[in-house]
Amino acid sequence: MTTAADGSPSDTLVRLAGVTFRFGRDAVLDGIDLEIGPEQFTAIVGPSGSGKTTLLRVVLGTLEPSSGNVRRAPGLRLGYVPQVETVDWNFPVTVAQCVLMARTRGRVGPWAGRAERRDAASVLERLGIGHLADRHIRQLSGGQQQRVFVARALLGEPDLLVMDEPTSGVDAPTRHDLLHLLGELSDDGTAIVLTTHDLNGMAAHLPHVVCLRTSIVASGAPIEVFTPDVLERTFGARMSVLEHAGMPVVVDHDAHRFHRVIPIRDAAS
Amino acid sequence: MIDRLLTPYEYEFFRNGVIVATLAGALCGLVGVHVVLKGMSYIGHGLSHAIFGGFAASSLLGVDPVVGAGAWGIASALAIDGVTRRRALGADAVIGVVTTASFAAGLALFAVFGRRGPSFEAALFGSILGVDTSDVVAVAALALVVGSGVVVGYRQLLFATFDPDVAAVSGVRVPVTDALMMLALATTILATMQVLGVTLVAAALVIPPTIARMLTDSFSHMLVWSTAIGAACGFVGMNASYHLDIQSGPSIVLVGAAAFAFTFATSGARGRARAGRA
Predict the structure, then answer these.
(1) Are both A68 and A175 inside the same structural domain?
(2) Helix boundaries (H) for chain A
(3) Which of A19, A56, A131, A158 has its CA 20 to 30 A from that of A67?
(4) A7 and A48 in a common domain
């Protein structure tokens, strides 16, 4: 993905040019130029209210911009994984039924065909949750729930997978597993765009990051983009950036102050 | 004993009433699944009051009350759906505004112009005395249309009810699906009005799916259970109304409430948890 329209049109899945979106008089997005190409793997980061989810919705086509243009490649197949917080976990549906929703368009009647059931089972096996097909979605762990919705998106064989806060509310091992899963999907040629608040655990591991605060503040590889200046302009707070194994590690600029309150050695003892 | 139970079937109006109550109960159970899972249980109550406004207007204008009330109810349902979709307002708030305004309009019309036409008390509380063969045919036809629609569009309905945002991205025409379900709901209330009465329709829409939710974790099974429970409540309730000499509407609702209490007591913690979150 690039933030300027300098790519070949045939390689672009979605192109936003001068996109502005307003709720009333307030601009949620302002002058967004963005290109999403095949095999891109990008995190959109920014504080709450910076327009991340709105930007995803404009990309998906569920929101029309107030001004500007959005162009999608003809026949583009989109997969969308919503925030798990928005899911009704008590809805009467099993894992397999949930995944098969991806094959709804143009289907008549309640019964899935043999090929559809086989494809769904194959995707679930690929994600390591094939044994959970007949479970109710409420009976899954956080990581398993996230995989169910990734599986549903993948069953639609998307060119572009869009995920809203996939690591929200999941523990570190689950985040680690999800990161590896998305890495595999990216390696297989699926373009992925996700939003995240998790700079170190998620965004810093991805090849491309967009810093958003109504407008795009910066875009590029994390090691180039995660600078104190860009982070301050994005999040409105001073942050320091360390480097570990070639990756940026973002820490609070005043982190040393907390050590004065609760010294680490004292807390450990 | 058997003879006593079969006695009311000697009367044509009762046979028609039982058929209509059973079909209407099934219809309410089927449509009620969507209503309950979308968190719009209040809409049955609200729409029944909205239809009262149509009833008043149609009797003053000399229009057939059923046609007038039906058109008014459908317009109210579509208005609720449209306003909810276009503004960041909760469905419950929009239902409250549209339906109580409609109810108030009905009361105002009666106050200004006086009551004309057929008894509206029967429409409020239900009566099987006026049920004839044409009502049986109308309810049967509606049940067939709505039932067929749910079977044909089952997957679209499931996706749009569970996850409308993702369904829209996946090519499901969610606004059309929602509008069709609102249409089915309004016509169901209209068809049920004569037997149950508009004030008790809400119970017929909510009780069967809530019981069904305690029994299953599957959407398709919930549809089947809810339809069957609604039909059973209509059949048993109508028979009980004759033998206990009470109005059909309260009788059907009380049978449903008893079934809910029994299921709640016997379905265990898991069933109660399902129903509590439904």
Answers:
(1) yes
(2) 52-60, 95-100, 114-126, 142-155, 172-187, 222-225, 228-235, 255-261, 264-268
(3) A158
(4) yes
Whether residues A29 and A127 share a domain: the answer is no
DSSP per residue, B128-144 = STT--HHHHHHHHHHHH
How many independent structural domains does chain B possess? 1
A222 and A124 housed in the same domain:
no
Considering the domain boundaries, does residue A91 fall inside one? yes
> Are residues A40 and A13 part of one domain?
yes
CA distances from A89 to A151, B143, B206, B276 (A): 16, 30, 20, 13
What residues in B contact A62, CB-CB < 8 Å? 165, 168-169
pLDDT digits (tens, 9 = 90+) for B184-235: 988 888 787 767 776 678 888 999 999 999 999 889 999 999 999 999 999 9
Report helix angle B154-162 to B219-244, nearest 10. Answer: 100
Choose among B11, B17, B6, B4: nearest CA to B247: B17
Contact A110 B151 (CB under 8 A): yes
Residue A210 has φ and ψ, to the nearest 5°, of -120, 125
Q: Residues 6 or more apart from B228 whose CB is under 8 A from it?
A: B26, B29
- Number of A/B CB contacts below 8 angstroms equals 83
- Give the ipTM of the model, two decimals please: 0.81
CB–CB contact B217 A110 (8 Å):
no
Domain boundary among A98, A129, A158: A158
Pick A92's closest partner by Cβ from B153, B163, B217.
B217
Q: Are A59 and A165 contained in the same domain?
A: yes
Q: Which amino acid is at A216?
A: I
| Euclidean distance between CA atoms B250 and B247, whole angstroms | 6
State the pLDDT confidence band at A72, using cuts at 50, 70 and 90. Answer: very high
d(CA A41, CA A59): 15
Q: Angle of helix B91-113 relative to helix B42-61, nearest 10 degrees?
A: 30
**In this predicted structure, what is the pLDDT of residue A258?**
58
**CA-based nearest residue in chain B for residue A77:** B170
Q: Report the number of distinct structural domains present in chain A.
A: 2
A188 in any annotated domain: yes
Q: At A15, phi and psi to the nearest 5?
A: -130, 125
- Domain span holding position A207: 1-76+159-236
Query: B156 vs A104: CB contact, 8 Å cut-off?
Result: yes
Q: Are residues A122 and A52 in the same domain?
A: no
